[in-house]
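Q: I have 310 residues here and want to know how they pack in 3D. Can you give me a structure?
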Amino acid sequence: MYQELLLKEIRKKIGEKSLNDEIANILNISYDAAHRRTSLKSKFSLEESVNLAKYYNISLDRFIASDNTVIAKKTKPIRTSTDLLNYFQDALILLNDFKLNPDTKVYYSAKDIPFFYTISNSVLSKFKLFVWMNLLNEKDFMTPFSDFQLEKYADKSADLKTLYENLNVIEIWNSTTMSSIINQISFYTEIQLLTKETAIIILQELKDLIRNIEKKAEDGSQKFQIYAHDLLILNNSILFESEEKSSLFVPFNMFGYMMTDDKSTCDDALNFFQHQIKNSTSLNFSGQRDRKKFFNKMIENIEVLENSMR
């Protein structure tokens, strides 16, 4: 049964290509040997099954997981600038199936500003990278922000940002979503790794970002929905959901995620997101007063810090 399920998933991936040719090439076996496996006359070895699953990015969760057990992948630890660049490239590979499906929905529990917004060439984006490297690096990384460089970052991250923007996004925010970035700017300014002049530029870009998100909500696009839920403790979990496949990403540290494709787990997460949305305020359709009130409060918090630096 498991071999049939694996072959079924591979067929979905290869489309009109010859299944026997694909199996033969990947496992480096003869066409006849591949045919015996695809016709179920021979069994895949464990090594062969794992190699095929890795090659086609097929999670083995659905074959092994039970009601109380889930097999999860985890992102690689980030200790160097190269690790961070590879993180974005690896994330793009994991999400490639959703890139090809424009009907995919993304649910994001925004404890912090979703990192998809801060992967660009802006000073704000560079600062977020600076913070991540300071907090994730096991060695002392306390270099001034002015000396911080991360080459080829835009090349590695641009496709991931585009993928997120092209999907149907549902975000849940609350009044604390902005707290982390504001505290980070304040902290690094106080210890003089970030100049006040640069901090003000970052804060101005942060205000621009908030206003752009507000405008997206006001435009009423069905591809972007944002909700406010101040009673919910958000945790930066992300659910990618489509008819063919779902993937749940749950953080285990600041920038590390556990990921599973287990259907039962993803369905539970979807039900939780949908239940919380029912108890949230839609910032798309609640009216201008509630929307302005929510985003203006964030702008006020930014300006309090900005004014203290002038």
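Q: Anything worth noting?
A: The longest strand covers residues 168-173. The mean pLDDT is 88.
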